[in-house]
UniProtKB/TrEMBL annotation, chain A:
This is 3-phenylpropionate/trans-cinnamate dioxygenase ferredoxin subunit. InterPro entries: Rieske_2Fe-2S (IPR017941), Rieske_2Fe-2S_sf (IPR036922). PROSITE patterns: RIESKE. NCBIfam families: PRK09965.1 (NF007422). The lineage of its organism: Bacteria, Bacillati, Actinomycetota, Actinomycetes, Pseudonocardiales. It comes from Pseudonocardia hierapolitana.
Automatic annotation (TrEMBL), chain B:
Its cofactor is FAD. It comes from the Bacteria. GO terms for molecular function: oxidoreductase activity, acting on NAD(P)H. This is NADPH-dependent 2,4-dienoyl-CoA reductase/sulfur reductase-like enzyme. Residues 3-297 form the FAD/NAD(P)-binding domain. The keyword Membrane does not apply. It comes from Pseudonocardia hierapolitana. Residues 319-384 form the Reductase C-terminal domain. GO terms for cellular component: cytoplasm. Pfam families: Pyr_redox_2 (PF07992), Reductase_C (PF14759). The keyword Endoplasmic reticulum does not apply.
């Protein structure tokens, strides 16, 4: 698990990016939707944009470059140009701290989404 | 309607085909494309693909899901004529496609540098162009880019990354001044020199010289610049010549359409880089040679063709982005020369900022460098300029 920080570090309607290296090979974005935390891979599956920079609306984040929307719960894109889902990760709050349990592989992520 | 022909197999074409199906059209959809391959994405051609960081597969615009659209692809064949009243399309081979509706999506082609063709001289529009250019860049040497617009600047930036010596020549005193205004154009222009690219402005190229292969570029005033390869990034020409005699209104600026993609001929609509369309946001007709327009305009055109209303509640502002020298540039809205410019976030020196353009106090356009998140915030505050008729002056 990687440590993200304290819950109050992630304000309502905002996202924080955890850079690659802290227990994850790729950067991860953690979003606060009405007090509910969601973690996904930060890099858009279309090209090179950070989803933590995207526009949050409900449970969906709009990529800041070409506006594909990703569902934070499933990682699924709503439509082009993105074609593949982003990986979703489990968020764990323990002892007043926020952690992300990084989903190991893309396969694992899609099994989770299908379930 | 039983058959709809989509002419042009790129971003606007595939987007139109998808939109027809989304609107419930279950007849035959024939997509005619002059290129011998399925739709692919062009923006990476001057960026990741030219740099060797993305391959051909990464460019694909179609997905497995598109197989479910049940499209009839006719690839490697250009449309050569549209019969009056638009019911039939004749291909270069002589084959005829009879259709009840036609979507024009033939895009644009790069404007070639005038004169005889010599080797080592490139334009960049297609995948083949990018492959040929990359080969020349990998051979090393000196590249001269003619035109410091977005494509020219991106090619210069990528070539520099590949270790090529680059000179950019621009006839305007200030590149991008017409798009961004002098203050912000100057900030973008500075990126060239900061990255070791020589920029010569206010000077026109008069000719290219070399026996068999380009050797030098001649400038007005008699100067010459040595070159092993040349890229002309001097604009694009809409592919509309094939519409001569069709009765569809068009000129050198493109196919004329209204906001919904309708042309003057019923059952013929148009979208993407081949159009010169009324833009409800800007309040004028214009050709938007940008990716997002080619993605979105086809949805309106498809709705028009099928007789559905597609007028959005709020007009969306034109948008484009560019990546140069590691900087991400984003612009949305419509700028006029007399708009006021103000830095609303960050600072010019840090190269991380958002600038707003105001007209009569209203925010009509935004431009950002390396600030995608704040750009998104400001973009949502854009106000469509008041229609010209309501203006006092
Ligand atoms: C190198 C490059 C970089 C770019 N970068 C950016 C960027 O960073 N940001 C941005 O916003 N935009 C960018 N663009 C612009 C963007 O790619 C275009 O706006 C978009 O491709 C337009 O799509 P389209 O389908 O309308 O036209 P096109 O992509 O031009 O496609 C038209 C298709 O129709 C075919 N065709 C032509 N004539 C006929 C005929 N008679 N019959 C059948 N088929 C025909 C052509 O072969 C072509 O495949 C870039 C463009 C290029 C070339
Ligand atoms: S990079 Fe996210 S949609 Fe293109």
């Amino acid at each position: 698990m990687i440590l993200v920080g304290r819950p109050e570090d992630i304000p309502l309607g905002e996202a924080v990016r955890v850079e690659a290296g802290f227990g994850s090979k790729v950067p991860i974005a953690v979003f606060n939707v009405d007090g509910e935390l969601y973690a996904i891979d930060d890099t858009c599956t279309h090209q090179d944009a950070s989803l933590a920079d995207g526009w949050l609306e409900g449970c969906s984040v709009e990529c800041p470059l070409h506006a594909s929307c990703f569902d934070l719960r499933t990682g699924m894109p709503s439509g082009p140009p993105a074609r593949t889902p982003v990986r979703t990760h489990e968020v764990v709050v323990a002892d007043g701290l926020v952690y992300v349990r990084v989903t190991e592989s893309v396969e694992a992520a899609s099994v989770e989404t299908a379930a | 309607m039983r058959t709809i022909a989509v002419i042009g197999g790129s971003l606007a074409g595939i987007s139109a085909a998808r939109a027809l199906r989304e609107h419930g059209f279950d007849g035959r959809v024939v997509v005619v494309g002059a290129e011998d391959r399925l739709p692919y994405d062009r923006p990476p051609l001057s960026k990741e693909f030219l740099a060797g960081k993305a391959g051909v597969d990464d460019l694909a615009l179609t997905t497995d899901a598109d197989a479910g659209l049940d499209l009839d692809w006719v690839l490697g064949e250009a449309a050569a004529g549209l019969a009056p009243r638009g019911r039939s399309v004749v291909l270069a081979s002589g084959r005829e496609i009879v259709a009840d509706g036609v979507v024009l999506a033939t895009g644009a082609r790069a404007r070639p540098f005038p004169g005889d063709r010599i080797s080592g001289v490139h334009t960049l529009r297609s995948l083949d162009d990018a492959v040929a250019l990359r080969e020349d860049l990998l051979a090393g040497g000196r590249l001269v880019v003619i035109g410091a617009g977005f494509i020219g600047a991106e090619v210069a930036s990528t070539a520099r990354d590949l270790g090529v010596e680059v000179t950019v020549i621009e006839s305007d005193p200030l590149p991008l001044g017409g798009v961004l205004g002098p203050e912000l154009a100057a900030v973008c222009t500075a990126l060239h020199e900061d990255n070791g690219v020589r920029l010569i402005t206010g000077t026109a190229v008069t000719g290219l010289a070399g026996a068999g292969r380009v050797r030098e570029v001649r400038l007005a005033g008699g100067r010459t610049v040595a070159a092993d390869a040349v890229v002309a990034g001097i604009g694009a020409i809409p592919n509309i010549e094939w519409l001569a005699g069709s009765g569809v209104d068009h000129d050198h600026r493109g196919v004329w359409t209204d906001a919904g993609g309708a042309t003057n001929i019923p059952q013929v609509v148009a979208a993407g880089d081949c159009t010169f369309s009324y833009c409800p946001y800007s309040g004028i007709e214009l050709r938007q040679e940008h990716w997002t327009n080619a993605l979105q305009q086809p949805a309106a055109a498809a709705a028009t063709l099928l007789g559905k209303s597609a007028i959005p509640a709020r007009p969306t502002a034109p948008y484009f982005w560019s990546d140069q020298y590691g900087a991400r540039l984003q612009f949305a809205g419509h700028r006029r020369p007399d708009d006021d410019v103000e830095i609303v976030e960050g600072g010019l020196d840090s190269r991380r900022f958002v600038a707003g353009y105001r007209r009569g106090g209203e925010l009509v356009a935004v431009f950002a460098m390396n600030q995608p998140k704040l750009f998104g915030k400001w973009r949502r505050q854009l106000v469509a300029p008041a229609p010209a008729a309501a203006r006092l002056s």
